[in-house]
């Protein structure tokens, strides 16, 4: 069996290596248009920021290993330009022709740069390959770079902002939407934004690039931002031209079935160039992530060797470091659910990274989305420690079609330095079931403005700081002060992070008040949202 | 509804609080024999070691909160001494009588101390309650304590050893079995033992206490160990006398059905006094853990209020900090599977805590047990960072009846500071499936002695250090040196941690060698096992 693989990134390289392990006699050829295969793309921002010092470590694997360990024919600087499906051959830019029994298209994606007026290519960079990273490093080394603009605030944009800011470059993020990190919602993104601003990074939201002058970005709003260097990180485009020209079925990405076969029975595709099905919503999507690309490459190798492995769709599990913070997410966010008209319930909780009485515990903010039947639609979390751990567990429950009840039943490793006997995962399950069962009515930031606010914390705490307009009825007095609670309007109770107000709302609800809500996340959450607004106004 | 709860620990307290949240009108009484409720038992070793400084923080909740928030009648220093099931009343030591509609027995467990000859109670302590902890703290403060003996090396024993050693007390652990931490197997325990010894803690294995003299422990071997203080942490006994005397069905613990009801329809039991079903093996077991106790308390509260919640058995998910190390485990270990005659396959892998090219990555050792059908039976892991995270994910897969294939398909949050694109969880799944599919034959430490050993690493690395008796055939040369590999005996290939030898064994297996095995964990694993043996002999 002769297999030809176009592209030596995560999908192509893992497919090639697995093919060899499956079949010592297979003929395997990899065509790679750049001069490197299997590099650590996800580490590039840290390589630029000198967190990772050596270029050598950026090679996950190298050509020699593929040749000598795996006996794979790797051709670098070899760009495939056309596929002849009838004769099962591929032509390259340098006029070589390769025949195949099975073809794997793993061409990945490339950064998207709109044709902006005045764009100076010498000062404008994208980041996808090691040579991109070296270009940025060299430019910074060879020029006086004190001001950077990062356009687009997804994973790469945010990681680049951190890695430009840390060595002392004044950095501005420009983002078209209302918040950074479009995979999460505004409340969670706001916490990340506060951190970036605290570190001195300027964030311009709801504004886009209109044009460039030599050392200024001109924004749609008319404002300008000075720069010495620009990083364009708006997004990536799947590389589908080759497939399209060969007449394969394509949509936004190459169309594949569950075995990752294209519309041609001899051709597979994997990685960032493939349109996948979003596990949570069932909709078609482009979700360019390294884990899924690796998994897909392996599945294709097994299928070429006679198995029938299926790809079980992409959940979009992701994590990003934002200075001391970790932001992790899985599944759909509220924005996306709204867009798809999928009904949902939501909740916010704060929970300690580990037992509160053990030193170093830090609060983590969670936003969970779920259906009234208990299906989990998405989780977003931000905090300092143990953030992605909880998202991983919830992603696993989702993957196995578990429900919020399974979060409650999750039995996680417990000791005080690591978590609490009731882990955040359990609390998310309890909270969701209480909401579904009608045991608690949750209020959200958008509800505070027009509601009657009751701070249920002790008086001394209330006197020190509360939400404007709130009255104080400590939980310990609430059973005797029910007559002070209005019945004719929405009442929102709050405390520090949401547990006391939940208990208080139970007392009041059971005493016949239908209109009393608990503000999940409490005053800590409220303040995390306020800070950013305040600093924006100042 | 009048509910009486005997015991104000994790199970009793969580039951009481949930009852109130369920039903504002319920009558709820808690009888607690000590002078404290709902304390942070799991933090006690750290409180003794002054990692946790304040006694106040050790109260997860307090009596006032139970009374004032939850309107619960809590009686401290009130010991229940008998249950009259016909009249549904409970008598206390001080001759009070309490009637109930529903009774919850949450009496927990107490430390087991055999009646050793010569045991000096003034110098011998157990650790279960806050007052136990204060006794130990006071004894250390008021006496010259420079030598401690910890008898029994489970969770409490190991945590106590660390917390005695850190402030400078010379500490010796005495353990009857062949290794510490009986919930894991010897290979994983050995890594923990190395760490304890590195920190100066002496470990005596395969030896027990025979008797005490005033300042010496006399061991079964005849050896003696000097002490100023002894911590007895052999294990705990469920408190079942009350239930037994009332004629309730008891085994090693109180017998309950899946709704946590005892043999009396008006009486429930929860926590460390209950015999549960081991989720993994289906056998009956005592697994005293805080998480399950909390969960059980909540289930009982819901069932008393008319729901039919079931307890879905205990997996034994656990974690312990051992200085810089984290040791975590779930499910059954090899010792237990052997005892229960459950057939199993096993594997060891090493995997980085996060991407190897990102600073600070540390190797984690995993031991996984599974059936040839792919059911996961248990996972043990030890390392510095991200250890319990992977065990939590695997525990969740087990809980939802997933298989090793689901480990492979797990889509976990990935970025270089947090893990690798192929996470350890994925690699465990790949490895297990390769074993099941016959694609790799694994060798274990016990196989090394009588096998022909081939080091497949580069020659320079081999020359520097290898396993005694090994020959060197680098993977890059193996296809040309097949004739050097014997066919008439077991051949074990090894490398640093197991991946290269796996690839090498695939090459050789496919060239017709049936007798070639890969040593999972490689030389790093081998050395981790040797160190302890060497230091024991020295």
Automatic annotation (TrEMBL), chains A, B:
InterPro entries: FAD-bd_OxRdtase, FAD/NAD-bd_sf, FAD/NAD-binding_dom, FAD/NAD-linked_Rdtase_dimer_sf, Pyr_nucl-diS_OxRdtase_dimer, Rhodanese-like_dom, Rhodanese-like_dom_sf
Top-level taxon: Bacteria
One example GO MF annotation: oxidoreductase activity
Rhodanese domain sequence ranges: 447-531
Key words, A-Z: FAD, Flavoprotein
Pfam families assigned: Pyr_redox_2, Pyr_redox_dim, Rhodanese
Cofactor(s) required, per the database record: FAD
Similarity comment: family membership: Belongs to the class-III pyridine nucleotide-disulfide oxidoreductase family. Belongs to the FAD-dependent oxidoreductase family.
Protein name: NADPH-dependent 2,4-dienoyl-CoA reductase, sulfur reductase
Organism: Succinivibrio dextrinosolvens DSM 3072
